[in-house]
């Protein structure tokens, strides 16, 4: 006759660790609610599936390098920054991602661009898409060193294979010629195959100045805007408006 200890050993052998941890609890629940064997087994297996999915999601968020704040359910619609609740809900539905559309979030610093972009990337991850979030500073390093180090090559390949690539603070700083050309190549590779979210506080005219190349800036914008929703944010910085002090 098999005992609970025997069952635990078999669960550990099969590496069903979450089921093993919840075994006693599930046995009590089964007895209290008079579950059938099938109902009890379903409960155990669903517990294992839920725990594994949560672990996988945490790993995907870590690899995507999302900012700490990325939950759009906490978005403050009391702030008038140019995007309505209806527009936000449409973005959250991710239909644009299914159709390989891009989203360009433009506006002054502190108006919520990064938070929205990270939130959409998180929803994409939850929906099963491969999503990557990188600041332009990080991406510039990846592009520049992709042929020199194994780590940066792996990160570059992850960007190429992403179904959603978020580039945060694009054109905030001047971009080296070589990096600009590699960035164009990356965007061109993703064109009509994946979606890109751009956050920027620069106008298209200023992109040419950041790249120091009008032709390259025009070609890049041509790819990004071909199938894109441009969201123009406005207003004063939310961080400055809600800033905290020591005293």
Automatic annotation (TrEMBL):
Domain AAA+ ATPase: 99-234
Pfam families for this protein: IstB_IS21 (PF01695)
Protein name: Transposase B of
Keyword field: ATP-binding, Nucleotide-binding
Top-level taxonomic group: Bacteria
TM annotation in the entry: none
One MF annotation (Gene Ontology) recorded for this entry: ATP binding
Entry's Gene Ontology BP terms: DNA replication
Listed InterPro entries: AAA+_ATPase (IPR003593), DNAC/IstB-like (IPR028350), IstB (IPR047661), IstB_ATP-bd (IPR002611), P-loop_NTPase (IPR027417)
Family: Belongs to the IS21/IS1162 putative ATP-binding protein family.
Entry keyword annotation includes ATP-binding: yes
């Amino acid at each position: 006759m098999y005992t609970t200890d025997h069952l635990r050993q078999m669960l550990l052998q099969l590496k069903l660790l979450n089921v093993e941890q919840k075994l006693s609890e599930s046995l009590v629940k089964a007895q209290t609610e008079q579950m059938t064997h099938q109902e009890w087994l379903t409960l155990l297996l669903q517990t294992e599936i839920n725990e594994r999915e949560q672990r996988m999601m945490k790993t995907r968020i870590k690899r995507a390098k999302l900012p700490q704040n990325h939950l759009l359910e906490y978005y403050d619609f009391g702030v008038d920054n140019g995007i309505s609740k209806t527009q936000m809900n449409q973005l959250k539905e991710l239909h644009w991602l299914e159709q390989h559309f891009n989203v360009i979030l433009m506006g002054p610093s502190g108006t919520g661009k990064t938070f929205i972009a990270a939130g959409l990337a998180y929803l994409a991850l939850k929906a099963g898409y491969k999503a990557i979030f990188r600041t332009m500073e990080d991406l510039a390093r990846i592009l520049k060193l992709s042929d020199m180090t194994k780590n940066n090559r792996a990160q570059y390949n992850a960007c190429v294979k992403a179904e959603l690539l978020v580039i945060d603070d694009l054109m905030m700083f001047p971009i080296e010629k070589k990096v600009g050309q590699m960035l164009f190549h990356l965007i061109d590779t993703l064109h009509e195959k994946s979606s890109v979210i751009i956050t920027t506080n620069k106008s298209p005219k200023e992109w040419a100045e950041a790249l120091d190349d009008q032709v390259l800036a025009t070609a890049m914008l041509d790819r990004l805007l071909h199938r894109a929703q441009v969201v123009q944010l406005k207003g004063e910085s939310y961080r400055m408006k809600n800033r905290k002090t020591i005293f």
